[in-house]
Amino acid sequence: MIPNTGDIKKRIDGAQNIVIIQADNPDGDSLGSALALEQILGDMGKNPSLYCGVDIPDYLKFLKGWDRVSKTIPLKIDISIIVDTSAHILLEQLESAPERPWVAAKPVIVLDHHTGVKCDIPYATIVVNEPEYASTGELIYDIAKQFDWPLSVQAQEDLLQSILSDTMGLISEATTAGTYRRISEMIAAGVDRPKLEDARRALSKMATSVYLFKADLIKRTEFYGESNQVAVVTIPEEELYSVGTLYNPAPLILNELSMVEGVRVGIVLKKYRGKITGAIRCTDGAGIANTLAEKHGGGGHPYAAGFKIEKPFINFADIKSGVIAEALELLQ
Question: Are 220 and 184 found together in one domain?
Fold first, then answer.
């Protein structure tokens, strides 16, 4: 029995208009989880809606239904569900939105699985953060099973995509025997995994400009530590508003970094005016990503995490050298 889920059932049973909220850094897990919940709740006769404060990245648009995600909150809300984050800092767009008081005035359920992250969302009513799950989608699957909620093939396709996203295709150490069991149940229910993979590949093809940008990112990768344990790529703001709008630069290069001999931690730093964001990925056996991110106010999994530093004046060189030194120390 998952803790606090009895309260979730009572809240949802008594609600009709439910908004499903993603953080400002949507990924395959958050979008897959949100779309699955939309399907489940709709099949229960509820009126679900999808919200994210930023545009859905192009690389996620192979997920059917991404275009139903809105940057505005509906007028009528009975309850909100925040998926795949417990961090207040990742809801910056919602905090500045005029609809924020509508959300805060109603019950808010948080469903997450990030290790070492304590929920600091001030208006959260019920928090379920279970790090033993490889993805939030896995958690939602078990909640739906526990309460006999409808799990259509479409909902399970979305949940499978969330799992594949956060386990990097079932290769991360977060993948458990339970993960494989749940996936086998989804396939037995009619989910066609090869078809989903074909859709992802077809709609994830990159433009020529993105391909050449990726080559440039590879060329300017920096390596640190014994046997090049830490690989770092810096992306300036102007690139984020050009090629970066076509394809999220972090996932574009992070997987490549993990394939370099000796690399145990890959870090992508995005440099804005007054803000720095970091995306961290670790190879098997080097699960320090969440600990490193937490040092800078972020969080995540041992193998995938991120952070954001926002100040009026930031010395990028100092932040960068500090992150590298901390990564190398944690790897010892």
Answer: no
